[in-house]
Amino acid sequence: MKQRALNLATEAAEENRGQKTTKSTSHFEAGDLLKGVIDPSQIAAELKALAATSASGDCADIRPQVLSLLKSAVSDGRERIREMFFANGAGVLCANRLAKLQDVIIEAIHDFALAEVFKASNLSSGEQMAILAVGGYGRGTLAPGSDIDLLFLLPYKQTALGEQVAEYLLYLLWDMGFKVGHASRSIDECVKLAREDFTIRTSILERWLIAGSRKLSDELDARFEAEVVAGSSNEFIAAKLAERDARHAKAGNTRYLVEPNVKEGKGGLRDLHTLFWIAKYHYRADTVDELVKAGVLSRREQRLFAKAEDFLWAVRCHMHFEAGKAEERLSFDLQPVIAERLGYNTHPGLRGVERFMKHYFLITKDVGDLTRILCAALEEEQAKEAPGLRGFVRSLRNRAKSIPGTIDFHIDNNRINVSNKDVFKTDPVNLIRIFRLAAINDLEYHPDALKLIRRSLRLIDTDLCENAEANSLFLDVLTDRKAPEMHLRRMNEAGVLGRFVPEFGKIVAMMQFNMYHHYTVDEHLLRSIDELSAIEQGERETVLPLSSEIVTTLRDRRVLYVALFLHDIAKGRPEDHSTAGARIARRLCPRFGLDERETELVAWLVEDHLIMSDTAQRRDLSDRKTILDFSERVRTLERLKLLTVLTVCDIRAVGPGVWNGWKGQLLRTLYLETEPTLSGGFTQTSREERLVRARARLEDRLADWSEAEREAYIDLHYPNYLLTVSVEEQVRHAAFITKAREKDEPLSTQVSTDPFRQVTEIMVLAPDHPRLLSMIAGACAGTGANIVDAQIFTMADGRALDVMLVSREFENDEDELRRADRICDNIRKLLTGRTMTANLIAQRRPPRGVALFEIKPRITVDNSLSNRVTVIEVQGLDRTGLLSDITGALSDLNLDIRSAHIATYGEKIVDAFYVTDLIGMKITSEARIARIEARLKRVFDNPEGEVSSPAVLPSESAFGIPRR
Predict the structure, then answer these.
(1) Which of 54, 230, 666, 710 could form a disulfide with 616 if both were Cys (CB 3.0 to 4.6 A apart)?
(2) Structurally, how many domains does the chain consist of?
């Protein structure tokens, strides 16, 4: 089905382009486009019949009937176009039909207004007017939700009749629900403004006559060509390419976003339009076929253009039809629907939607290839046309320079280029060598070289893949000390990387259908290598102090680069990608030239590349058992260093906003706690001895207190608090608790921001209660705050100190503190019974797109992760208020939460709770464990049935805090 649709689409696109004339007054003949869609003569006849029923003579009294008739015609026509589109899948054909339908409606309104409304049959030369389609509409294509851009072209200045006709037409179009962009200009004004403004010039570049005076339209054609276009190609091309670059930068400068903008994104329709605008302007080409005749594109590249254009138009039309509006972002909720309509089925390891998105990204890559080909042709032509002395000087400056050690390549205007067209055929190793030479000499790539590379890809066979010199050159590119990511990216875009490393080729353009990963798998791998390179070059010292220090001590830097290149290479397979990736690493590393020790080290890093991130974010780092278990997995200090840097690069390359200072702090803490254990610096000290030392440290820091006050305060805390919390934090907590005591406040809160860790801390001191954490979590959910960590400390006087860390939302401290104050206000309302968690959460919108995903809840009760407590890990689909419901359920189960570790991966939560029973013991009963698992699963299975707040009496709270 999919291939048939693509074939039909390509044939239809080529047919339509063949119908397009070289004159801008007609982009295609109506022909079969309107067959079965709308009958223009019938519309005209029905409007004329309506005019005959007008009692006023000016048709003002029948305007509602005219509007109803036109609305019905548009609705019926669009529905037929939709049915045709769903049947054949031809995107450009659908866009052409929608544009032609719009032509018919506008022409009918124009003719009806002149003949029946304003009775103007004989127009003077000053009253002549032409209605032109411009902009996107001017290409002869419209998406279902597209705006309509019109130019009312006047001979001199606007006349009363012209103004009346334009107003009548516009108001009818607006009342029909169309978004219309319009301008009324004389030919002189069009020429003048087009000279001054490239946006207006581009809009007028593609135009055709819908209705009105052909003479005016022809005059604009001639003057626009002679007075605007002639001699201005270079400035137009420069402006359009600069505009494109700015648009790409705004979108993140990558085509591999998992929710791409089909119209404006890199490799999208706007890039194809820019390509054609440049070609039309410079080569005076109205069709892609003319670019082939001019020698700019080959027949293969023409087919590539047609395929890309039709696929992107098909996706865009499906998006608009499904959304019922102009939706340009291919969001998660639209992707599965369109994938199904286009016939993409699930294969082992890849869902249908992931296969569809992979095809989408490959198409956008083709658009990038076409852009480079056209730019190369323009550059070559510009060089030939450079006149006189200026051209001679330029030719001297850009004259080919030799590269030491090779005669196959040379430097052309600071870009590497081939010396002849047979360099790859003569020696296929040159397909890898060119990238190494570019890296050594810090060169970009000439478009001619990239074009020849793409046309020589068939030379990359098994012999070349196993060639020792080729693999050595590749390893040098991968570990380049200046810009490995840039050269690997060019290698990937040229198609070399996926062929030379077939395992990498399988993940090129592969997306993962989830809300956590922002990029395709290959893009993620290249970005992770870029992160490592930036760390090595000292560009991350401020934000990544530990990693920046570690890389200066590594003796296995190439192991780290290879491990980053391979760590996700097995994604999209039915088995665990870490295990499969380690197997691939053991096969590829010897090929790349790594020895046995290095190969095993890479394989271990790939297989365990998630262990440090998982431990840091999901385990209690103050629990000694956590550190010992992690040390057992890592075993050596060198592996710890490599794993730390790899983990940092991996997380930072996931996407914008995924890395933050809090995650960095967790990884630093885990590293610093593990390092002495692996280096032999850890000595076992009894718990009693450590407790004595901890009390002494705190006493020393509270030296300005009286002895009685110190003793009384320290006795408030249980040993676990003194052993696990840093003395600096204990001192801050002491000041907070003392201040609350002086104010005699049963409930006290304090907030502070931490810009480096990018978190905001909220401290709550309140009477202890089983649902205290649940209430605080509900208060955070009510303001949309994401909790990243929670520490719960019960004190001997029956109060609890809960410390919550929430992700920072605002850059400005004042704004962030105001948000934190709202959270504290919610906490007070909940704890005093003035509102309920359900009420707060009801005001919040659910997380966007979460409902599209299915994640089976998983509850794990583990007694092996800690010597003192039971660890309950909860995985499942995120939703607003989920943490409040989970902690509430744990309270219902009579469990005491000692600490909570909250990790969110897009739509998925992985939360770990360190708990005991009410007398401080582990949960060991099999029956009770079964009840815990069943109860927590009900939180996911029946979220509406969860009770997020306990009942409270009208006069007092369940916490004993008076209402105020």
Answers:
(1) 666
(2) 5
Kindly state the helix (H) or strand (E) to which residue 255 belongs, with its residue range: none
Same domain, 601 and 649: yes
Is there a single domain that holds both residue 636 and residue 535? yes
Read off the pLDDT of each residue in 398-404 and give the average, rounded to a whole number: 76
What CATH number does the domain containing 273 carry? 1.20.120.330
Contact 850, 882 (CB under 8 A): no
Do residues 647 and 710 share a domain? no
Q: Classify burial at 360, counting beta carbons within 10 Å of its beta carbon; exposed 0-12, middle 13-18, buried 19 or more.
A: buried
Tens digits of per-residue pLDDT, 653-711? 988 778 877 788 789 889 988 998 898 765 455 667 878 888 999 999 999 999 999 99
The verdict on 293 and 376 lying in the same domain is yes
To which H or E segment does residue 209 belong? strand 208-212
Q: Confidence class of residue 845 from pLDDT cuts 50, 70 and 90? A: low
657 and 524 belong to one structural domain: yes
Residue 323 lies in a domain: yes
Residue 839 has pLDDT above 80, yes or no: no
* Radius of gyration of the chain from its Cα atoms, rounded to whole angstroms: 34
Q: Is residue 442 part of a domain?
A: no
Please count the other Cβ atoms lying within 10 Å of the Cβ belonging to residue 197.
11
Among 765, 719, 718, 761, smallest CA distance to 739 is for: 765
> What amino acid occupies position 131?
I
Distance CA 585, CA 561 (A): 12
| Whether 698 and 766 share a structural domain | no
Indicate the range of 7-16, 595-604, 933-942, 952-961 predicted with least confidence: 7-16
Residues 722 and 753 in one domain: no
State percent of the chain over pLDDT 90. Answer: 52
- Asked if the structure places residue 835 within a domain, the reply is yes
Q: Distance from CA of residue 394 to its chain's centroid? A: 41
**Burial tier of 148 (Cβ tally within 10 Å: 0-12, 13-18, 19+):** buried
Please, which residues have CB within 8 angstroms of residue 928's CB and are 6 or more apart in sequence? none
β-strands 444-445, 415-418 pairing: parallel
Distance CA 646, CA 607 (A): 12
- pTM, entire model: 0.77
Q: Residue 491 and residue 460: Cα distance in Å, rounded?
A: 13
Distance CA 604, CA 410 (A): 41
Phi first, then psi: give them for residue 152, nearest 5 degrees. Answer: -90, 105
Q: Which of 215, 383, 153, 378 is nearest to 285 (CA)?
A: 378
Domain match, 219 and 307 both: no
For CA atoms 418, 419, 422, 424, the dihedral sign is: negative
Q: Above 50 in pLDDT, residue 176?
A: yes
Over range 13-23, report the average pLDDT. 35
Looking at the domain assignment, is residue 455 inside a domain? no
Strand partners, 805: 761, 789
Instruction: Name the domain boundary from 696, 729, 762.
Output: 729
What pLDDT does 525 receive? 96
CA dist., res. 268 & res. 277, Å (int): 15
Domain around 336: 250-393
Of the pLDDT bands very low, low, confident and very high (cuts 50, 70, 90), residue 515 is low
Instruction: Enumerate the β-bridge partners of residue 914.
Output: 871, 899
Helices and strands (H, E) in the chain, number of each type: 41, 16
Residue 32: give its domain's CATH number.
Answer: 3.30.460.10
